[in-house]
Automatic annotation (TrEMBL):
ATP binds at residues 260-262, 347-350. Belongs to the class-II aminoacyl-tRNA synthetase family. Type-1 seryl-tRNA synthetase subfamily. Homodimer. The tRNA molecule binds across the dimer. The gene is serS. GO terms for biological process: selenocysteine biosynthetic process; seryl-tRNA aminoacylation. This is Serine--tRNA ligase. Catalyzes the attachment of serine to tRNA(Ser). Is also able to aminoacylate tRNA(Sec) with serine, to form the misacylated tRNA L-seryl-tRNA(Sec), which will be further converted into selenocysteinyl-tRNA(Sec). It comes from Neoroseomonas lacus. Its main location: cytoplasm. GO terms for cellular component: cytoplasm.
Amino acid sequence: MHDIRAVRADPAAFDAALARRGIAPASAAILARDEARRTAQTAQQEKQARRNAIAKEIGMAKRQGGDTAALEAEAIALRDEMAALETTAAEAEREQTALLEVLPNTLDPEVPDGADETANVVLHQHGEIPSLAFQPKQHFELGEALGLMDFATATKIAGARFTVLKGALAQLERALGQWMLALHTEEHGYTEASVPLLVNDAVAYGTDKLPKFADDLFRTTDGRWLIPTAEVPLTGFAMDTIIPEADLPMRLTALTPCFRSEAGSAGRDTRGMLRQHQFWKVEMVTITTPEQSVEEHERMTRCAERVLTDLGLTWRRVFLCAGDTGFGAARTYDLEVWLPGQQAWREISSCSNTRDFQARRMNGRFKPKEGKGNVFLHTLNGSGVAVGRALIAVMETYQNEDGSIRIPAVLQPIMGGREKIG
RNA sequence: GGAGAGGUGCCGGAGUGGUCGAACGGGUCGGUCUCGAAAACCGAAGUACGGGCAACUGUACCGUGGGUUCGAAUCCCACCCUCUCCGCCA
């Protein structure tokens, strides 16, 4: 959520920031509501002050047995006048909020221009695109041939965009999640959290999933939401709180299933388990100060890269351009992994600094060591990494010509020393 | 699910429909005292949104949202949450 005072202070800059995202100017409409609200509010408050004074006078007069009829009449008149002003102010504020809450975050100045992913900038690549001596298969071909990946059963019991894993592949998926979690907690200073997978409106709104992206989420019959990422509950730790600066940065991680309706992606990535309604993901979230968030973003991204490097995967860091940066993010790095079977780079992690955009929405602040007042926090989130896609990448990268799959060295201890599947 | 109790400031805890933004205690910060500290004493301190160049000032906030009233922390209604007992349950 944007700071209305920032819009007021420099409407042109606000509209220019929106233009980078290809969004029409909005400051005039917003400021009209702001002006209307303040005018009505000021008038209403003046009447309220008078009404409060009258109430006091009546109280004193009654104690002395005086006549209060005239005062009471004035108070009633005031009440009616105030009601109209209050309605005007509330309506203007509602409209202003409705306009503001669907506007994306302001981009970091360094974010490259561009309308879509073709303008993203590859910052660096780790590892070579492997040239196999045979025709590599895609993960679902490998999985189905091994009899360990079963889409038919998943479809029968749940529907499209679900997968059943069995035996060593199920174990490999579990090992990946466990191992990533251990890496972040033991070496990267993140605190593991086990969190609710169902959340309320407030935290979904605070993490900018609502109201604009409600269609992307699954909703429970009692009005809660299945989390699309652990970013939602973890960032929610900061909601409606004032954290002492000494407790920052707060680095949190969780391994959770993620649920996405994939409403807008019908027909895309329908084969295999690349795009599912449900997948496991290790998420990292940092809650910190404005001074620390820039460096924290780099640090978090390196933590995600470490996962891919240690798994022996080929990956690259991509700086998302203006048009591809997500709604809540000021700056985002995607990590893309090379899938030999698909012969393509695919997103496996996305690390974003939202600055104070989410913190404003959820009223998350900290108390600075120096100086007065409370300041909005900065929140960052990043996948560390998507487990389902890591499984795909491992399968396609470590496949042998006979369809068997070697197990990356770091995972072998958790896989009971096993070195190969199939 | 049934029955009951309760939600007040950083914490504990008062609060009669009318000078209550809220007693009192603790904690915090500043000061006095001290070689220094403790104790004691004195003082300060909430958040949000307006108005004002500013000093300052107005309004709101006692779980949330409505209502009654000239006036609500206090009365009424709904909802949320916490606790106790019973039932059920991984």
